[in-house]
User: What shape does this take?
Amino acid sequence: MSPVIADGRKVQYKEKNTLFDYADSLDVRVPTSCGRTGECHECIVEIKNGMNSLNPITKHEEFLRGNYRLACRTRLEDPHAIVEFATLRRQPRILSESINRKVPLDTRVIKENDNVVLDGKIIDRYRGGIYGIAGDIGTTTVVLNLVDLESGEIIQTSSFENPQRFGGGDVMNRISYDGGAFHGELKQVMLSSINFEIGAMTRNPNWKSLHRRCIYDVVLVGNTTMRDLLYGIDVQPVGQKPYKSLIQTEFENKERDSTAIECSAADIGLRVHPKANVYSGPLVGSHVGTDVAADMLAIGMDKAKSPRMLVDIGTNTEVVIGDNSGMVTASCPAGPAFEGGEVTYGMPGYDGAVEAVTIHEGKVSISTIGDVEVEGICGSGLVDLLSELRRTETMDELGKYSNDSNQFAFAADREMYLYRSDISALAQAKSANYSGQFIAMRHFGKSIEDLEALYLAGGFANYINADNAKAIGFIADFPTEKISKVGNASLEGATIMLKSVSSRRSIEKLVRKVEHIELETTPDFFDIFVEGCLFKPMPQEIF
Ligand code: FES
Assistant: This one.
């Protein structure tokens, strides 16, 4: 009999076992809320090896694409096959620290006498606490803060891999998935996962438990697609020119006051107090969503008197330049190459990911997250590796290896390589970032020396070596002292909106001052994009 491997741990084949049973025997936690009947769709696992040795897809799994299965519906048909599967990861490296902008507590839900009051209406009797959830729904990772709304204190931060991965790695794929036969499935898996995570947060043994019904206010931000999917709004218009949410179109037609939306928890299916409010923040425009509005709030763009640039790096990178009198923004579809997709040994920032690389006299030195055995390489490691390959002239500006090889071993003992095809994917992802920053600066009429600061937000931005990122043209060539890493500014902005109703109004006003640029309509976009694919610094002169 052959072993079954779950999250790197091995167990022997046992007849009739489901993958869920194997996970149980290995103490690998798989989410569920349906009693393993195939209904809840929470137990999605990725099959790393042996897809063809499993039972055929069941009717409960027809919504899944690629190498994904439901653990509770899947069995091995060939006892001699080696099958390896992985749960969608919980608790990736949490980027919860940020710049910590202080705002006066001005919550929407308050205690009055022995009651809990929302917008002046009693919604519950006071049960010993008033709590809220602020969340950043990223295309790749979801991060949630549980906040005590009476003190403003963040009690817990939790994160998990976006479970919508089976619908594709980027927003365009997810839009197309949602337009198909399984419309609504992406919303459902996201809600199930958030509900599961909220349950886990409220039962955390390191903290006194609270009842999930004591959560009375929720702010969830995300890019336009993530936000609209979550609220069950048709996202097909976001995927086609002019790439606008239905909500943005209604706003432009003066049918609503703001692109912020809200509903009750009961309406959306969030398992907190049913009358809790679920607020999304306003969209900035097109693909630039409420997560960037949250970034702007976190870095104090509403108070900024001199122009600065914000770059929120992720599967979709967003750029905002300006101050509180006016701004431009651009959205750059970078794709998942720096976040674990499209690169042969790429992986998100979990334990075992190479996060830093140096090359000295031909010898590669690496360090991994968690200081454990190498499993792959994440974005910050890739930025270092590309920069070191250039610095040592192992690779030229075009991304070709100088010895004409097709590969370079970054972890030789694990036989892990960076291939030429990987470099092409990374060059294009890098260029999306480059082009967005370059075109936004040029459109705004300011070059690097005119801007007060470069804020790097989100994803792996906090972990990148800024000098290496500048050296390969991943970020604009700002003097290092002008660069600030602001951590998970979207989560921070969402938390500010949760703690302060007036901040919601101020960000709803501020986003009206933002002009959106469509990169592809720039006449010389193609030339800029090609230049951005080269592994060299962005020029100082952009006019
Ligand atoms: S446990 Fe609910 S679908 Fe598998």
